[in-house]
Design brief:
This protein is α+β, with helices and mostly antiparallel strands and 205 residues long. Helices cover 20% and strands 28% of the residues.
Length: 205
């Protein structure tokens, strides 16, 4: 990501970004340009979004990918998650900004991991409707799932690569039928589905 040199008000940012050819996030008063992800990053986001779209068809929920902007009123921030789901009727007619998501997913890359884990998650936690935040590693098979429990605390469930004893494409067919659940939308799928068509760094050598 590349920081824009000028600090803008939220209103000025929204007006300014509409005139830009690139997408820009707005975090704590700072404008940050979005950079392109890897093919692995794109495949993971597409795999999940397609599966969620199929599962939620006809259920008054909407699934969006990276071009959908999420607004966070409490922090005056505007972010572009890799995958976002909203089932709130207030978002049904939204045209530019999603304000009431229940599920947000970020696909990690070396350049964005610190931001996704830290500043972004702190902002996302201020969304009153958010129930689940998921981080999917694009460099190895590793997933972290944060869920808001009945006491208002975020609980972490991990699905680490060590659990599978491998991380290469030519061995993915040996993965156990391990599944991950997205409780916010009553959905589960095989871990292998999320990594379908993904080529890791050691496989391209």
């Amino acid at each position: 990501m590349i920081a824009h040199p000028q600090s803008l008000s939220p209103q000025a940012y929204l007006a300014w970004e509409e005139e830009q050819s690139l997408k820009y996030e707005y975090i704590n008063g700072q404008v940050v340009a979005m950079t392109g992800g890897t093919l692995a990053h794109n495949s993971i986001a597409l795999n999940l979004a397609a599966a969620l779209k199929n599962h939620l068809r006809g259920k008054n929920c909407k699934v969006f990918m990276a071009d959908a902007k999420v607004g966070i009123t409490a922090t005056n921030s505007f972010l572009y998650p890799d995958v976002v789901v909203t089932c709130d009727r207030r978002d049904q007619t939204a045209r530019k900004i999603i304000n009431y998501p229940c599920l947000i997913v970020e696909v990690l890359s070396p350049g964005t991991e610190a931001l996704d884990r830290g500043q972004k998650f702190r902002n996302y936690r201020q969304i009153e409707t958010l129930q689940e935040y998921v981080l999917i590693d694009a460099e190895q098979i590793n997933i972290e799932r944060y869920c808001l429990n009945e006491n208002g605390k975020w609980e972490l469930t991990t699905y680490p690569v060590g659990q599978f004893e491998l991380a290469s494409d030519r061995q993915k067919d040996l993965l156990p039928n391990q599944k991950i659940e997205f409780s916010s939308v009553s959905f589960n799928c095989a871990i292998a589905l999320l990594y379908e068509d993904v080529v890791f760094a050691d496989e391209s050598l």
